[in-house]
Amino acid sequence: MTGARFTTLGTGTVALSGERSCAGYLYEADDVRLLLDCGSGITRRLAELGVAWSSITHVALTHFHIDHHGDLPTLVFAWKYGQLPPRSAPLELIGPSGTASLLERLAAAYGDWLRDPGFPIKLREIAPGEAVELSETVRLSAQKVPHTAESVAYSIERGNRRVVYTGDTGPDDALGDWARECDLLVCECSLPSSMAIKEHLTPEQCGALAARANPRHVVLTHFYPPVERVDIRALVGEKFSGPVTLARDGWSIDLTGT
Q1: What's 97's DSSP letter?
Q2: Would you say residue 106 lies in a domain?
Q3: Could you tell me the residue range of the domain that residue 91 belongs to?
Q4: N- to C-terminal Cα distance for the chain?
Q5: In this structure, what CATH number is given to the domain that contains residue 94?
Q6: Helix (H, G, I), strand (E, B) or coil at 21
Q7: Do the beta carbons of residue 71 and residue 47 sit within 8 Å?
Q8: Crossing angle for the helix pair 99-110 and 72-81, to the nearest 10 degrees
Q9: How far is residue 218's CA from residue 243's CA, in Å, rounded to a whole number?
Q10: Within 10 Å of residue 60's Cβ, how many Cβ atoms?
Q11: Residue 45 has what DSSP assignment?
Q12: What pLDDT, in 10s, does the model give residues 135-144?
């Protein structure tokens, strides 16, 4: 792979569906295998899609709702007990302020193996506006978004290619400005306008965000069932005329170039 690949592992929500797992996305480039969120069903999707799950190098959480981290203990348990030999390579766990406390609470529930699974876990809390070098070629940065107190969006940069993942968010002009001219805007699209709430986006609001950000390609995800009963593409198209993909679990795109 000369460029990078982005895969939508889980495009659904906690409205349980056989077709859509909870949130999870995989970014692969060079020696980086970055899992963005790890909601329920993501470990199954990794196996179904033939992803080399044992080689994931980083996990980055956007916030602490269970549909975005529910399979993290399962994944760590799989690395420890689900392969021979067990994992020895270090893992970097990244998340907003409070991630260390989340890991402590999960370890209190599941056991100390989650803190100390037999391979090093480097935990890094990332602040909005901060950037982390994942490797010599890949950089991750964070932006505050309006969903929960800790929620962040992520930007992944490699060479002249940039992917922005909104995580869960409500309408936010600052997010659109921050995502300006990215190659891929992976954007939540949770609810129809008839059910709009300030913590999530409707298709119309996705269109407005895309119009402000002007990405090369918009990928919509995080669908609750009611939003799939409206014409999402047409509603987004009222504000944004560029390419729009309604993602499914297992959809992927190659980001070629340097």
Answers
A1: T
A2: yes
A3: 4-249
A4: 12
A5: 3.60.15.10
A6: coil
A7: no
A8: 60
A9: 6
A10: 28
A11: H
A12: 999 999 999 9
